[in-house]
Amino acid sequence: MKTYKVMVKPNKKQNKVYWEKVSLPEKEKYLVVETTELPIEGKANKMVIKLVAGFFKLPKSSIMIKMGIKSKFKTVVIG
Questions:
Q1: Which among 2, 15, 24 has a CA at the least distance from the CA of 48?
Q2: Can you give the residue range of the structural domain that contains 21?
Q3: Which domain CATH number covers 25?
Q4: 29-34, strands of its sheet edge to edge
């Protein structure tokens, strides 16, 4: 199992996924997921799983949001 930190940007014009260094105290590399979905009723989280799966060319069933369901910063587990 591999764990990634993900920053979600909902309500964008297009869906995309990319790596970015976030200027936080940790200065870690985050996987940034921009989605057209709104963070309502889990719609954005479902799209995050779909987009991350597509980014890594894996089935959606292998992606799970471990922490941060209601946060823009999430921990995603692959495997």
A1: 15
A2: 2-78
A3: 3.30.1200.10
A4: 16-21, 29-34, 2-9, 73-78, 63-67
User: Could you list the pLDDT tens digit for every one of the 79 residues in the chain?
Assistant: 999 999 999 999 999 999 987 666 666 788 999 999 999 999 999 999 999 999 999 999 999 999 999 999 999 999 8
Helix (H, G, I), strand (E, B) or coil at 58: coil
Secondary structure letter of residue 74 according to DSSP: E
Q: How far apart (Å, rounded) are the C-alpha atoms in residues 43 and 24?
A: 27
Cα–Cα distance, 61 to 9 (Å, whole number):
22
